Amino acid sequence: MLGFGSSLKVWLATEAVDFRKGIDGLCGIVRERFSKNPLDGGMFVFINRSHKSIRILFYDSQGFWLCQKRLSSGRFRNWPRGGKTDASIVSLVEAELSVLLRGGRINNLYLKPSFRQIREVFE
């Protein structure tokens, strides 16, 4: 998997998407269904109806990346379901996405909080 850094926002679609859609179609879903801007630099992750393939849409300031992973056997069985407030999108951190893409479960996953220095150093 490509490395994007721990500060990357990851948005995961909990409902299946028609994979006949390309970059423009997935951007439309991001705008209309999720009310997000695909040009903001976030990563948007989609799954197909059979749960055998995922697609990742990402904008890197020069253009869009559309990556796909199709399992040789089995399915993505641990795909999150939407909550009561917003049933179609879930926010993840990159480490959770990595676990999910390897077939793991993220609902009981413990991640140490990220450290980020708040005070700026002036020279």
Report the strand count. 5
The share of residues in helices is 10-25%
Helix-strand string:
EHEEEEH
Task: Specify the biggest β-sheet.
Answer: 5 strands, mixed
State the separation between the terminal residues, measured CA to CA: 38 Å
Rg measurement, Å = 15 Å
Task: Work out the strand percent.
Answer: 15-25%
Structural class: alpha+beta
Overall outline: globular
Number of helices: 2
Total of domains: 1
Mean pLDDT, all residues: 83
* Biggest sheet: strand arrangement: 4-3-2-1-5
Task: Give unreliable regions as ranges.
Answer: none
Give an overview in words:
The structure is a single chain. The protein has 123 residues and is an alpha+beta fold. The chain has one domain (10-101). The chain is built from two helices and five strands, in the order E-H-E-E-E-E-H. It has a five-stranded mixed beta sheet. Helix 1 (23-32) links the parallel strand 1 (10-13) and strand 2.
